[in-house]
Design a protein that fits this description.
mainly alpha, 9 helices, 0% strand, globular, nucleus
Length: 256
């Protein structure tokens, strides 16, 4: 993922794999066939991926505190994250807002808001709903199921998923280290044939011949287990934010 303008701060590299995956997904959705879709429906993935990208940056900074202010500000200036939408997320009642479009009265005949902003308890129709412009299934505070306002992978909290993967990887590395210490390999090494050469041409894909293998491209979205683990971490981080707010605004000032 490349951006014109100033060089990104060092902390941006932590976000880059997921942002690149989102950028590639957005490009795919823009170029896909829209045959059989309503005009507004064809825009759903674009709106939803844009929301998810902003949520990812927001969660990494405000909830999980994995990036610094310079990295966050860079994402805002480069329009990677939507500053106007994030500003709404900071206000009570708008924490899960899908888009500023759905709360703009001029977009609706009677100067109201979208059905996705109406709490379930106040809706005349009690069944499932979906905003025709964003595909949101409901973003009123307290109504969001499993933190997913779109009911698909674009509603996943990617920051939580990424951190859950990191914790799982660290745990596995510790287990592997313990197993290696408990069961050391024999010191005797196999004898290398004198005819072998370090520069011998062969079909081998070993690291010795071609250098360290590059990591596979990141899959930003998680399976059911990863999504559940990510949601758990996100919920814990949100509870931590609420505790800071109860203690007073002094701690929040440093981050806002």
């Amino acid at each position: 993922m490349s951006h014109r303008g100033p060089k990104p701060p060092p902390g941006f590299s932590y976000l880059q794999p997921t942002l690149t995956a989102l950028s590639n997904e957005l490009r795919t959705m823009v170029n896909r066939s829209h045959e059989g879709l309503r005009k507004s429906e064809s825009n759903w993935p674009i709106i939803q991926i844009t929301n998810q990208r902003s949520r990812y940056v927001y969660d990494m900074y405000y909830l999980h505190k994995k990036i610094d202010r310079k990295t966050y500000d860079y994402c805002i200036r480069q329009k990677i994250a939507d500053a106007a939408l994030i500003a709404k997320w900071k206000k009570g009642g708008y924490e899960m807002l899908c888009s500023n479009y759905v709360i703009t009265p001029s977009n609706y005949k009677f100067g109201g808001v979208s059905i996705c902003r109406v709490p379930k308890s106040e809706r005349r129709e009690k069944g499932e709903i979906q905003d025709p412009n964003t595909g949101c299934t409901g973003c009123a505070s307290g109504d969001v199921v499993n933190g997913n306002i779109f009911g698909n992978k674009y509603g996943q909290r990617l920051a939580g998923i990424q951190i859950a993967r990191e914790e799982r990887r660290k745990k596995k590395e510790l287990e592997d280290a313990k197993n290696a210490a408990a069961n050391p390999e024999p010191e005797d090494k196999p004898v290398v044939n004198e005819g072998d050469s370090e520069t011998d041409d062969s079909d081998s894909d070993s690291d010795d011949d071609f250098g360290p293998a590059r990591p596979a491209p990141a899959e930003a979205w998680g399976d059911n287990e990863e999504n559940e683990q990510g949601l758990k971490l996100t919920s814990q981080a949100e509870e931590g934010e609420e505790e800071e707010e109860e203690e007073g605004p002094s701690k929040k000032k440093q981050r806002n």
